Structures are given as structure tokens and as C-alpha cells.
């Protein structure tokens, strides 16, 4: 007697929320939603049972059910599943996408309890030092984007170097220096240390500060591992850039607050191709929620156009892809995994203890979409990790799907 | 492709340092890897490793370790022989030195035949040694493990292990493992039953090493050899042995490797998940990157990547006043050996599943060595089919492997 099997492919995600099913194909990036009637719900629940290996046997009754057979045809025709009708006793098998991380959060905590745990340090990927204040800084923008502070102390270069030395590991890919480096008392020492260290550095400075110190900028022999990220916080200022065309290590970030800013940016950018790279970043300023709602909030259409691989989805299921691996050090000595949340400690604490604290108690690196309303959303794992915008605006999600 | 930087990183983060504290042994096991059955090891001359040499290696390792404040990378200091309990004076001196120095906490380990266990068990238990005891099963199963008068060591060994279990039950439960060698006088079933029944533990069972057998001893070897998988299949309770010993049985291990490599669901750590490390460094051959797993120091001060590699492949030396290791030369040397079989790797279907260490390829020193693990498309397909078939028979193992198993 023939047996009939339906098997989802290993790159097909099947998510079930209440009476809705959702299939996402991480190979061709297509997805579709479907209503779960009793029969389809049963089949879906059988498919996701680990011991069923993403396959289930269909009964004759299932095949005679028009809803079921239509659904089967749909998922097969869309290359999400295979249908097998066979006399053989061999059951088909497939591996349901589900992450297994050998050295996960619990592993590191267990290592720590054993008195070891050095490998946790390999998770430091980026350091950001706010070194001093800038007259053109802002004490709010830094909560959303890299932006110099207006009122703050100055960090001693020794603390910066000590912190970097403790954080050294092959996955430390970039170190940001934010502030007005030209008014930094330890300018020479910092540049010397940067030259000695083999990491990439990005100096983040406002357009105005750089403009004012342009002569010194030109005169300084910058180490080859230094790049500049020039922040333009007002689009019309874009035309003030004094650089020549050959600055391959300078890129620009322009902050926009409205649709007009955004349009103006593109108008200017077309005529001023002076940076190796340039990007535009929206900033919330308490008065532009409508702009955010119209242009930043995620829509169902955005999610339908998602092109996430299986690995991308796994990442979103376990880490905050915006925050993971990042530490920010403020001039007052506080160290943050995310500057909108409580500090982990101070720069004179051991870096190990800070990282361990984030792994064991932190709310930043592992802040994923597991709370309401996201946990009830069928798009839960297609949606980007929660960002600083959510924290600043005070909403758990910025979307029109589950407003 | 090995580089100086990778070798240095491995040294800085060394996970295990193994000292061969003596090449003497109070037993004369017929199948021992250091016996006359095998080639490739230095002649056993009753030597002992000197404390000075051990100290130089420890100083060297700890001086280059990439320590930050509070950071403690796990390092396992293990003692090997010969029979390491024959040189406990040195073992104790090394541990005292580690403890008195500013070095960080270490994990201690030892592999022993347990003949002298009664004399040293208090010290081992007190210092929480991870102890691997060699025991091949019951009296008859153990009969290749003889002393120099050809007497079976079983009665003494068994008595000592029971004494350890009685005197230090918690230590015994948490830190003691059994390693059994499979041969023609035992079977997986007998070993499993004996150790499980007497000590409530699951043994690690390995077959005789098939590499480096002296030509004139081939026949003797053949008589003794038994395959682990075949022995399991021949047992009366095959399924329950596999379910119980799980990852320590070949078929479950193969299935696990298959799932880890081919499911696309398993990642080593956050960096592997984020940066796709495995994709960046495609692995050819099953050879470890030098010092990625361990460093082995012989009694005469030769430095090797592992105790299982013939001694003539040493990649460093402990001199009178220093340790001589050249990361660049070590990387180049390994690359040279790898390059000899790279054309076979290109055609081989094992890829990341390759278990072959190049230093255990019999003719790796020749111009055109041949890899005995080479797997063509047909063989690969067959292996794959067998693994899938096994999974079909045991679909419940997928969940168990995904939830409970960690192999590195």
C-alpha cells in the first residue's frame, strides 16, 4: 500500500501563531501566510515535531480534503516542500531549521562557574570611546547614533589604552573614537597608541569640528588604520565640506529629521561625491514621530521583501544584531553594552567582568523580539533586532504590522 | 593553510599541555602504542622528564598567554607516560610550581593503568585530577595488560579502583573515566557490562591503533584487532548499548558529525554564527592546526602537537635554558606536508568530515603519499546512505543530539 509523505526542506521555516501559519523560504526569500484549519494545523504540528524530522505521513482522508491538497500543492509548487508517494518503508527525512550553538550563553556561564571563561572575550567586536565634549555636540543624539557629546568630561588616554589592551582578541574589528579629537588634551599620545595597535580605528567627529580644524587635520600624519566618519547633523551644511576628492578614508553620515531633509540630502549628494562612502540616518527628535511612522517604521511590504538567510534568522533568534559585541565607554567612566540601558560597570573594572555581566544579567546583547507584541507576530524572526530607536521612542516595536 | 599568526594564537590560547613524565611503565601491555608492536616513537629507555624542562615549558606558555585582568582561559595540564604514577615526585613538583607561581587556575588530568593508584589516590582526589583509568573489562578481558613478569594486572587494578570508589566516592563519581581498548579478548558488550555493573560508568572504547605497526608484527596485530562497530553489532543488546553509550559509539558519532556538518543548524559559537568562520577557512585534512588542541612534551624534551603523532615529527625542543619553537617554521612544515596530499583532498568527498591526521599517514614522508581515508563519490554516497538509514531507524536521536551533544 502506498504511503504519502510531505517533507519540508531544510531551508524552509514554518512558523505557527494562533490560527495563522507562515512559510519563509530562506533560499529564494519568498514567503506566504495561510490560515490554519484543523487539518492543516495538525499536519503543521506534526511536521515540526523533532522526532518527525520535518516530515509527516498524509492519510487518504488528508489527500481527499480539498483544503489540505491545495495547501500541499502550494507549498510543493513554491519549492518549500517535497511530496512523496511510495511503496517503500523508507521515510523521508529533513532537518528542520533550528539553531544549535555549541558555545552559547549557558556554556559561557558554566565555564565561568568552573573558574574559566576566557573565551567569552572573543565576543568583543567593537569598542566606542566618547573621549571629550564638543561645542557642536548634542546630549541626546548619541542615544540613537554615534554623535559627540556637548557636556562631558574628558577621558584619560591611559584608560582608553588599558581598556583596549584588555579587550584584544581576533574578532575586535573596530574601535570608534567619538568627540572632538582636535581639542583632546592627549591628542599626540592617542595617535601614537593608535599607530602601535593593529586594530582599525574610526574617528567620529562633527562636520563643524572638522571644518574648524581643517588645517590641523591636513597637517597630521594619520596612521593608516584610521578612518573618519564625519557627522553632518544639518543637511544644508553638506555643502560646506572642504575636502579634496581623494579622501578614501573619510566617509560621511548625514542625519535627517524629515522627508524634506532626506530629499535635500539626495539633491546635495549628487553634486558632492567627496567621500569614499556616505549614508543617511534618521534621528528622532520628539517632533517627528510622523516622519518615522511614514518612512522608518516597518511595513508588511518591507518584510515581504526580506532576503534573510537561515543564518541571518538564527542570529535574530539569539542575539541583538545591533548591539552584540559592542561596548561603549563614556568619559565619566561608565561602560555600556547599550547606552540607553544601565551601565555594566566602569572602565576600571576588568573587561572580563563587564562582558560576563552582560552575558549573565545584561539586557542589550541578547535583547531579541521575544516580548509582546513581537512574540505574537508571525514576522517575529524576519523583523530586524530591536534598535535604539525603539528605546528612545519608548515602543517595543516600530512597525505597522503589530502597531 | 597554517600561518605564523594562527600558530601563535593557538599557543597563546593553548587548551591542553601534556607532559610525558616518564617513559617507564610498570606494565608491559602487548598492544601498547609504545611497545615493540609499533614504530615511530622514541626508544623507551627508562627516562624521566626533568623538572627544569617542565618548568621552562610552563614559563614559556604562561609568558605568552594572552591574559587580561581576570581573564582565565582554561588550560588542562595532563600527565602521561609510560605510567605517570611512577614519577609522582615530578607531577607534585610541577603542580606546586604552578600553584606557587602567579599562574591562573588549571585543570589537572592524568591517564593511568591504576597499578599504583592505592599509593597516590588521596593526592589525586585532593587535587581533583580528571583521571582516565585504562581497564579492558573483566579478568580475562584485561589479560593483555600484563606486568613485566607476564602476570595479568587485573586483580591489583580492580582492587585499587574499588578502593578509590570507596574512599573518595564523590571524586570517583565526578572525575574518573574509564578507557578500554578493544581486542580479541573482549567485546564492547563485555566491557560495557563489566564497567557499568561494577562502577556505574560508561567506558570510552577504542580499537587498537592501526597506524605505525611494524611490518614483522602485522600478523600479531591482525589477531588482536577488533572493530568497535562490528563488536557493537554483534552484541546481544546492540540497541541498548548504543542508546546508553550514545556519542561514544561509532554510528551515533557518525550521525552526530553528519548532523553537525550538513544540517546547517549547528554553529560552534557566536563568532561562527556571525562571521561564518568555517566558510572562511575551508578545512582540508583532519589535521589539527598546530597547538589548537594541545601540546605534548616528551621525556627528552621534544615538543609535538599531540601524543598520537610519531615522535620524529616533533616541532620544537626544550633546550637547557629555553624552549625552541618557531611559529613560522611550524606553519610552513605543516603546510608542506599538507601540500603533498592536497590534490587527493580536492578529489575527496569527506571534506570537513575528514578524520585523517597527516602525521598518521604511513608514507607522508614520501614524495607521493596516499591517504587511506580518501573517499570517492561512490563511497561517500554509501556512507551517507548508511547514516541516513540509521537516522531513519532512530529519528528520536536527532532531538537528543541537538539538545544534549557537544563535540568539538
Task: List the topology elements.
The complex is a heterodimer of chains A (403) and B (408).
Chain A: E1 3-8, E2 12-17, E3 20-25, E4 31-35, H1 38-47, E5 55-58, H2 60-64, H3 66-77, E6 81-86, E7 100-103, H4 105-113, E8 126-130, H5 157-167, E9 174-178, H6 187-196, E10 201-206, H7 207-212, H8 214-219, E11 226-232, E12 250-256, H9 259-271, E13 277-282, H10 289-295, H11 300-304, H12 310-318, E14 326-329, E15 334-336, E16 345-346, H13 351-360, H14 388-393
Chain B: H1 4-12, E1 16-20, H2 51-64, E2 76-80, H3 88-100, E3 107-112, H4 117-126, E4 130-134, H5 154-167, H6 169-175, E5 176-182, H7 188-199, E6 204-207, H8 218-224, H9 228-233, H10 238-245, H11 250-262, E7 266-269, H12 270-275, H13 277-280, E8 295-297, E9 302-304, E10 316-318, E11 323-325, H14 327-347, H15 377-393, H16 396-404
Helix pairs in contact in B: 1-14, 2-3, 5-6, 11-15
Q: Strand pairing plus helix content of chain A: what structural class?
A: alpha/beta
Order of helices and strands of chain A: EEEEHEHHEEHEHEHEHHEEHEHHHEEEHH
Q: What is the H/E string of chain B? A: HEHEHEHEHHEHEHHHHEHHEEEEHHH
Q: Briefly, what CATH class of the largest domain in chain A?
A: Alpha Beta
CATH class of the domain at 4-245 and 289-326 in chain B: Alpha Beta
Amino acid at each position: 500500500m502506498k504511503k504519502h509523505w510531505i517533507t519540508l526542506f531544510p531551508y524552509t521555516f514554518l512558523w505557527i501563531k494562533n490560527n495563522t501559519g507562515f512559510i519563509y523560504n530562506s533560499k529564494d526569500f519568498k514567503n506566504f501566510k495561510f490560515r490554519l484549519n484543523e487539518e492543516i494545523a495538525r499536519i503543521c504540528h506534526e511536521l515540526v515535531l523533532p522526532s518527525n524530522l520535518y516530515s509527516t505521513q498524509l492519510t487518504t482522508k488528508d489527500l481527499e480534503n480539498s483544503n489540505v491538497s491545495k495547501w500541499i500543492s502550494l507549498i510543493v509548487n513554491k519549492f518549500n516542500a517535497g511530496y512523496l508517494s511510495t511503496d517503500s518503508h523508507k521515510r523521508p527525512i529533513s532537518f528542520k531549521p533550528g539553531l544549535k550553538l555549541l558555545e552559547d550563553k549557558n556554556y559561557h556561564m558554566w565555564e565561568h562557574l568552573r573558574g574559566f571563561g576566557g573565551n567569552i572575550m572573543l565576543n568583543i567586536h567593537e569598542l566606542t570611546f566618547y573621549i571629550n565634549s564638543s561645542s557642536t555636540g548634542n546630549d541626546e543624539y548619541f542615544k540613537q547614533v554615534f554623535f559627540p557629546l556637548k557636556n562631558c568630561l574628558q577621558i584619560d588616554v591611559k584608560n582608553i589604552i588599558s581598556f583596549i589592551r584588555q579587550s584584544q582578541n581576533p574578532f575586535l574589528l573596530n574601535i570608534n573614537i567619538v568627540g572632538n579629537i582636535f581639542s583632546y588634551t592627549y591628542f599626540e599620545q592617542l595617535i601614537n597608541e593608535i599607530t602601535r595597535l593593529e586594530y582599525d580605528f574610526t574617528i567620529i567627529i562633527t562636520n563643524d569640528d572638522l571644518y574648524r580644524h581643517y588645517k590641523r587635520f591636513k597637517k597630521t600624519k594619520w596612521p593608516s588604520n584610521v578612518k573618519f566618519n564625519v557627522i553632518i547633523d544639518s543637511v544644508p551644511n553638506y555643502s560646506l565640506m572642504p575636502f579634496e576628492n581623494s579622501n578614501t578614508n573619510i566617509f560621511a553620515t548625514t542625519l535627517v529629521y524629515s522627508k524634506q531633509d532626506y530629499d535635500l540630502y539626495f539633491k546635495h549628494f549628487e553634486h558632492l561625491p567627496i567621500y569614499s562612502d556616505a549614508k543617511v540616518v534618521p534621528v528622532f527628535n520628539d517632533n517627528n514621530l510622523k516622519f518615522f511612522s511614514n518612512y522608518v517604521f516597518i511595513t508588511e511590504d518591507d518584510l515581504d521583501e526580506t532576503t534573510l538567510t537561515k543564518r541571518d534568522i538564527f542570529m535574530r533568534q539569539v542575539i541583538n544584531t545591533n548591539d552584540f559585541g559592542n561596548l561603549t565607554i563614556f568619559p565619566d567612566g561608565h561602560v555600556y553594552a547599550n547606552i540607553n540601558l544601565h551601565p555594566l560597570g566602569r572602565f576600571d573594572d576588568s573587561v572580563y567582568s563587564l562582558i560576563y555581566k552582560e552575558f549573565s544579567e545584561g539586557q542589550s546583547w541578547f535583547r531579541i523580539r521575544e516580548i509582546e507584541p513581537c512574540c505574537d507576530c508571525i514576522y517575529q524572526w524576519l523583523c530586524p533586532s530591536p534598535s535604539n530607536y525603539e528605546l528612545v521612542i519608548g515602543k517595543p516595536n516600530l512597525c505597522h504590522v503589530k502597531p | 593553510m597554517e600561518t605564523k599568526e594562527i600558530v601563535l594564537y593557538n599557543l597563546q590560547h593553548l587548551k591542553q599541555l601534556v607532559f610525558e613524565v616518564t617513559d617507564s611503565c610498570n606494565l608491559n601491555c602487548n598492544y601498547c602504542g609504545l611497545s615493540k608492536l609499533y614504530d615511530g616513537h622514541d626508544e623507551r629507555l627508562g627516562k624521566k622528564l626533568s623538572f627544569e624542562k617542565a618548568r621552562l615549558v610552563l614559563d614559556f606558555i604562561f609568558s605568552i598567554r594572552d591574559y587580561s585582568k581576570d581573564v582565565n582561559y582554561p588550560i588542562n595540564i595532563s600527565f602521561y607516560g609510560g605510567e605517570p604514577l611512577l614519577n609522582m615526585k615530578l607531577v607534585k613538583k610541577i603542580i606546586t610550581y604552578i600553584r606557587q607561581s602567579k599562574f591562573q587556575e588549571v585543570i589537572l588530568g592524568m591517564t593511568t593503568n591504576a597499578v599504583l593508584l592505592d599509593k597516590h589516590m588521596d593526592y589525586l582526589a585532593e587535587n581533583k585530577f580528571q583521571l582516565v583509568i585504562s581497564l579492558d573489562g573483566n579478568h580475562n578481558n584485561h589479560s593483555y595488560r600484563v606486568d613485566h613478569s607476564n602476570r595479568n594486572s587485573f586483580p591489583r587494578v580492580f582492587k585499587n579502583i574499588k578502593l578509590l570508589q570507596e574512599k573518595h566516592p564523590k571524586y570517583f563519581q565526578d572525575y574518573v573515566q574509564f578507557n578500554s581498548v578493544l581486542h580479541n579478548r573482549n567485546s564492547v558488550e563485555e566491557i560495557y557490562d563489566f564497567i557499568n555493573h561494577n562502577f556505574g560508568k560508561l567506558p570510552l572504547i577504542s580499537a587498537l591503533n592501526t597506524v605505525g605497526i611494524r611490518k614483522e608484527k602485522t600478523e600479531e596485530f591482525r589477531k588482536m584487532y577488533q572493530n568497535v562497530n562490528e563488536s557493537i553489532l554483534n552484541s546481544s543488546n546492540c540497541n541498548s548499548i548504543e542508546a546508553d553509550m550514545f556519542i561514544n559509539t561509532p554510528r551515533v558519532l557518525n550521525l552526530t558529525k553528519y548532523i553537525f556538518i550538513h544540517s546547517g543548524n549547528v554553529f560552534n559559537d557566536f563568532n561562527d554564527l556571525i562571521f561564518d568562520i568555517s566558510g572562511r577557512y575551508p578545512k582540508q585534512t583532519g589535521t589539527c592546526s598546530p597547538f589548537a588542541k594541545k601540546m605534548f612534551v616528551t621525556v627528552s624534551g621534544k615538543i609535538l602537537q599531540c601524543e598520537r603523532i610519531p615522535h620524529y615529527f616533533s616541532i620544537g625542543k626544550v633546550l637547557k635554558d629555553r624552549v625552541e619553537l618557531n611559529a613560522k617554521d611550524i606553519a610552513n612544515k605543516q603546510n608542506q606536508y599538507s601540500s603533498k596530499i592536497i590534490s587527493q583532498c580536492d578529489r575527496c568527498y569527506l571534506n570537513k568530515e575528514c578524520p585523517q591526521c597527516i602525521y598518521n599517514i604511513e608514507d607522508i614522508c614520501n614524495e607521493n603519499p596516499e591517504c587511506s581515508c580518501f573517499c570517492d563519490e561512490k563511497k561517500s554516497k554509501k556512507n551517507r546512505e548508511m547514516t541516513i538509514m540509521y537516522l531513519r531507524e532512530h529519528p528520536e536521536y536527532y532531538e537528543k543530539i541537538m539538545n544534549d551533544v557537544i563535540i568539538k
